[in-house]
Amino acid sequence: MSAAIYRIKKNKKYARRRALFFIVLILLMAIFNADSIWRFFYPLPYHDLTLKYARAYNQDPYLLSAMMKAESSFNPRAVSEKGARGLMQIMPETAQSVAGQLGYHDFSPDQLFIPEININIGAWYLSNLSDEFNGNVILMLAAYNGGPGNVTEWLEADKSGGIKEIDQIPFPETRHYIQKVLMYHKIYTRLYSQGGG
C-alpha cells in the first residue's frame, strides 16, 4: 500500500473517531444539561413583568409567556396583518377599551409597543375572558384568538353541552393557535416552575 493511500485511510479513520467523539459529547451534554438547552430555545423574556401582571390578575405566568411566544415570539414591535400589536398581539380597539378601565389616560395604540403596557392589557383581558368562560383555558384562548363573540356563537350552536375539546373549534387557525399555546405552556411550566421561575 502506498504511503498516500495509507494516510488517506488513517485520516478517514481519525475523522470518524473525532466525529463519533463529538456526537457522544453532545449527547452527554444534552442528557446532563437538557434544561439549559431547552431554555435556550424557550427563554422567558419579560418574566418580571409577566409575573407582576399574572399575579395582579390571578393568571398563570407561564400561560402568558406561552401566549407571547405564540403571538409574537417575544417581539415587542410585532404587528400582525390584521393590525394586532406588540408582545401579546392586542388589537388597538380592544386595547383602547381596556386601557380606559386600567386608567391609561390619552392612550395611543403605539403604546402597545411598550412591553409593560402590552402585558398589563393582555393579562387583564385574559383575566376578563377567564371570568366570562369560567376559567376554561381552551375557551379563553379561543376567545383571545378568535374573539369572544365567535366563541359564544360556537357554544350556542353546539348542542353537545359546550366545547370541551380543541378539535370542536370551527376555526382551523384558532385550533392551531390553542394547540401551540398549550404546548408552549407545558414546556415553560416544566422548565421554569420547579424553583427556577
| Overall outline | elongated
Low-confidence stretches: none
Measure the end-to-end span: 62 Å
Describe the sheet with the most strands: none
Q: What is the mean predicted local confidence, pLDDT?
A: 88
Q: Which percent range describes the beta-strand content? A: under 5%
Structural class: mainly alpha
The residue fraction in helices comes out at 55-70%
In angstroms, what is the radius of gyration? 23 Å
- How do the SSEs run, as a string of H and E? HHHHHHHHH
What is the count of DSSP helices, taking H or I runs of 4+ residues?
9
Would you report the number of β strands? 0
What does this structure look like?
The chain is mainly alpha-helical and 197 residues long. 66% of the residues lie in helices and 0% in strands. The longest helix has 30 residues, at 3-32. It is elongated and about 85 Å long. The N and C termini lie far apart (62 Å). The mean pLDDT is 88.
